[in-house]
Amino acid sequence: MILSINNLLPTYFDAQRANTSDIWGKNIQFNKGELVKIVAPSGSGKTSFMHFLYGMRNQYNGEVKYDNNSLKNYTPEDFAKARSNNVSIVFQDMKLLPEPTVLENLEIKRQLNPYHNGDKVLEMAQRLGVGSKLHSKGKTCSYGEQQRVAIIRSLLQPFDYLLLDEPFSHLDNANAEKAMALIIEEAKLRNATVILADLEKIDFYPYTSIYYL
Amino acid sequence: MSLSFKPIKPLLLTGGKGGSGFFSFLGLGIGVLLLLCSVQMYINIQQLLKEGSIRKDGYDYISITKPITNATMGQPEKSLFNQQDIDELKAYPLIENVSPLLPNDFRVMLSAGDVVPFRTDMFLETLDNDFLDTLPPSFTWQPGQQNLPIILSSDFFEIYNVFAPGQNLPQISKETAGGMVVHVHCEGNNNNEVFYGRIVAFSDRVNSVLVPKSFLSWANEKFGKGKPVLSSRLFIKTKDANSTELLKFFDSKGYKLNKDKTLLGRNKIVIQGIFSALGIFGLLVVILALLLFSFYLQLVIARSKDNLQLLLTIGYSPKWLGANFSRRFVPMYVIIVFGALLATQIMQWAFHHFIMYNRPELSSIVHWLVITIAVVLILLSVITNYRLVKKLLYKLYVNE
């Protein structure tokens, strides 16, 4: 599956934004196995971009295409299929279910299309330091813990594209590096493309291409 | 690993004990019970009143007359049926056939000869053979024949035996009457002749003194005044004399019916009206309950909106979620509708056993139509439910 964007620009942005951006208003294809870094200062539309790629919002001109199929033509069922088989995401605001436990949050995602077994889930949780939190409710975890759970959740399915929207904003460097290593490992396992958007460059992300939003 | 709804289930009923759900299920139960009972009673009435009239070969025979009022007295054209009336009746779809009861157009006197000192003015009538309930092979006549076969009304015979002792006349059994010969004196048009009448049968249906049609046609021509003879009474052959539609038709024409045979039909109109109204009320309650339940579903979905939206966002199919969510209520629907069906069955059994004393026209088991309605109601509830949930989930998708 190949992701490409054509003249993509939010409807609420000036057309002139295209002149200063590497992404807005451009035609770009994100190839398989690439590690893409998007540097995006506040207000440059980073989250909008991620949401457009994930098909959560459609207030844009231009097109987002997977294998030449525009997201604007996707039905809810197409989205459901793509989100459980081809595209995974870590949201900036984590989006965990508040009442279920951490483990339930992970299982609810994993059962959709299990790429790993249950043991691997425990191993990942241990590795990112949330092993002791598996039976705590999502809402009782700290932001840092929630962020790590959200990262693990995104790695439990098969994917061609992994979208990361400020994935380490609540983590210290040591934990962020651990999470980064896991992400890269999992992406390689699937020969997947990682698109990471953050406010500034992250030293420990071995990107292969960089874009300024 | 198959997709399980178990971990999803707790996400869908947040913040409520389902009070509105309980009331909508209760309403549904009451509505379905009312509807099924009404349909069953409606069918019971149909089956009971099918037997309400004298039938022959699957047909009912009833007689109609035009009412005689002070306004129509002395104007035979207003109280007699003309050919146009008969044709109109024949054209009505629920009427299979019509036969006028033709009277004599000359003077007829009856005497018992020398056996019983009895002489009276009399009338004769004739009807198509097809309309007679008892038709012995001897009921024929040809010109030149002195013997005249007669079919007498059982009611008339009863009346004779009632007044005979008071008139110093002997009471007679049907067997004896059949063996007696009465003298039928026909006079008119300057002719007169005596025939030897013999009662060959008794009729429960036709209140008259009937002779073969060939005789009366011949006699009316010979002794009559030469005018066409009109009938004041018509016999109607129909599939169902208690058909409410047929009775309404007669009412609209202002015809008067033989009341005994249609009294049940009149009651049937009223009773069926009551049960139709009850059935419609039941249906309304069912619709209201389904509406209430749809509000309950909307409430549940609105309460769980955040969770549902998140599930859709991480890749759950709205179709799968909708189907599994709706499926949770299917057992409840099945229990409610079959509970109502069981209650209807008990009611039907009790009605048949205790009120109708096991009459053979009725069954202790509910009619198949009632069972069909119950199944259709379940399907209807499940389908409308599923469609509503799916629609609400798609709406969440658009709004996300």
What's this entry about, in short?
The complex is a heterodimer of chains A (213) and B (400). Chain A has seven helices and nine strands.
What features would you describe in this structure?
The complex is a heterodimer of chains A (213) and B (400). With 213 residues, chain A is an alpha/beta fold. In chain A, 34% of the residues lie in helices and 21% in strands. Chain A has one domain (3-212): Rossmann fold (3-Layer(aba) Sandwich), CATH 3.40.50.300. Chain A is built from seven helices and nine strands, in the order E-H-E-E-H-E-E-H-E-H-H-H-E-H-E-E. In chain A, the strands form two sheets. A five-stranded parallel β-sheet of chain A has the order 6-7-8-3-9. In chain A, strands 2-1-4-5 form a four-stranded antiparallel β-sheet, with helices on one face. Chain B starts with 18 loop residues before the first helix and ends with a helix. Chain B has 400 residues and is an alpha+beta fold. Chain B has helices at residues 19-49, 76-79, 83-91, 154-163, 174-179, 213-223, 244-253, 259-303, 305-313, 318-327, 330-355, 368-399; strands at residues 55-56, 59-65, 95-100, 102-103, 107-112, 116-122, 125-126, 147-153, 181-188, 191-203, 209-210, 233-238, 256-257. The chains are: A alpha/beta (213), B alpha+beta (400). Chains A and B meet through helix 3 and helix 4 of A and helix 9, helix 10 and helix 12 of B.
